[in-house]
Amino acid sequence: MSRLVRLPLTDDDGEALGRVHDIVLAPSGDKLRVLGIVANIQRRNIFVNIARIADIDATGVRLTGGTVNLRSFHRRPGEQLAVADLFDTKIDDQYLTDLAIAPGPDRAYWFVVRAALGRHGPLRRRAPEVVPWERVASHFSSTPAMDQAAELRDLHPTDVVARLQALPPARRQEVVALLADEQVADLLEEMPEEEAVRLIETLDLERAAHILEEMEPDDAVDLLADLPENERAALLQEMRPEESVPLRRLLAYDENTAGGLMTSEPVVLAHTATVAEALASIRVREIPAELAAQVFVTQPPTSTPTGRFVGVVSFQRLLREQPSTTLQECVGDTPDPVGPDLPLRAVAERLASYDLLAVPVCDHAGRLVGAVTVDDVLDHVLPEGWRRGAVRR
Q1: DSSP structure class, residue 84
Q2: Residue 67 lies in a domain
Q3: What's the confidence (pLDDT) of residue 393?
Q4: Least confident of 102-106, 145-149, 350-354
Q5: Does residue 337 contact residue 359 with C-beta atoms inside 8 Å?
Q6: Are 12 and 124 members of one domain?
Q7: Where are the alpha helices (H) located in 179-240, listed in sequence order?
């Protein structure tokens, strides 16, 4: 880790974004797991989740994608910084001088695997004693809440919701404070509306706003609509404008219409983009499966509201085309888009009639403003609390 600090942080094209400042760790059972890094970008320390990191090597850290959230880093309970907190910790008659990290068996997460121990004073110039992490792990004990949070990090959101519901309210709040914002966002999307409201109201304003930014826009809007007007206004004001403006637009629609159901962030590409670019876009892990099943093709601009809507290309069609083929050439018979004011029942009938995973939503000028997925419709037509009784296989 001492070699990693100060190395460059780059995007997936190798362009420098900043430098590594520290590594964020948290107990995970008897292991110490890497949550991400603190990077210095534009004279600001920001957090980069380990899920956004493609490679860590002797040249630095490379991201997947080129954008990062520039919100300042704030440490949460249970998180530890390798350099700032752990280095120089006294262990018997020695001191921790360095830590080594390596990916786990599935390469999805990184863990501390070795520790370097040395002495202070003149003798410190001697080569450190390198030992397995397990030999020193007991010196970095965790709390019950930290252990529970570690157990929840790798579970499906539905299972996490069930585990949290079984905890006393005070412990539940402690555990949620230790979870990553991205995981809390996933939980809020899975929770019944009343429970989601109660959870978001236990968080401080800055963190609640950040979590809403991590949620799918349609789910964030549903949650905001259930909050008192003054709390909703405060959260929208705290959010970054590029995140809050689409939510304000969605809040203007009735919740039981296409506009109220839709997400404003489907996969949208220009008609001149190639099949290769489209496949790379839908391969991004953070995109929900129901949105990654098709690409919505428009004329520029491609952020909603877009230029004129051209059509939809399914991923099956993309797999059958040459990589250099343009999306305009792939657009075939596309079902007509729906308007934002179309009622919920009519949207459901459209999805069922054409056996679609998502239907485009366009305004009166023919611009794409969003897409309604079958998942969005099911969440509104199934009885409230249906997820509690659902059995996952």
Answers
A1: I
A2: yes
A3: 39
A4: 145-149
A5: yes
A6: yes
A7: 181-190, 193-200, 205-214, 217-225, 229-238
